[in-house]
UniProtKB/TrEMBL annotation:
GO terms for molecular function: transcription coregulator activity. Component of the Mediator complex, a coactivator involved in the regulated transcription of nearly all RNA polymerase II-dependent genes. Mediator functions as a bridge to convey information from gene-specific regulatory proteins to the basal RNA polymerase II transcription machinery. Mediator is recruited to promoters by direct interactions with regulatory proteins and serves as a scaffold for the assembly of a functional preinitiation complex with RNA polymerase II and the general transcription factors. Pfam families: Med31. The keyword Nucleus applies. InterPro entries: Med31_sf, Mediator_Med31. GO terms for cellular component: mediator complex. Belongs to the Mediator complex subunit 31 family. It is found in: Nucleus. Component of the Mediator complex. GO terms for biological process: regulation of DNA-templated transcription. Keywords: Activator, Nucleus, Transcription, Transcription regulation. Transmembrane segments: none annotated. This is Mediator of RNA polymerase II transcription subunit 31.
Length: 122
């Protein structure tokens, strides 16, 4: 079972009256999406599709801020990069700059450095 599946399996089952979307609850869908924000290449893809310039999508990113607080925080597999990128996506300048392959590469390198540092300290 993938780590993401474990996080979803540990989530509370949706209430019986909660609507399902393709067999998944809103919680599960939003969890998967917010975790995908940890990937700099995915952020670049969103920007290349012009989603980061659409007011409705920007509002959705603001709505997703609830993942930064308990009890939702505990369900994130990679809270560091997920929350960092969610915070950066609140800034218009970042939403424009993520189109740059150089910025994407810098984010990847920063995350690798953070992981190495964490493992050395642990």
């Amino acid at each position: 079972m993938a780590s993401q599946d474990v996080a979803m399996a540990s989530a509370s089952p949706p209430a019986s009256d909660e609507p399902m979307y393709g067999g998944y609850s809103r919680f599960e869908i939003e969890l998967e999406f917010v975790q995908s924000l940890a990937n700099p290449f995915y952020l670049n893809h969103l920007a290349s599709q012009k989603l980061l310039t659409q007011p409705a999508f920007v509002a959705y990113l603001a709505y997703l801020q609830y993942w930064t607080k308990p009890p939702y925080l505990k369900y994130l597999t990679y809270p560091g990069p997920t929350l960092r990128h969610l915070e950066l996506l609140q800034r218009e300048r970042f939403r424009q700059d993520i189109m740059s392959p150089d910025l994407v590469q810098k984010l990847v390198e920063d995350e690798m450095e953070a992981a190495v540092t964490w493992h050395k300290e642990g």
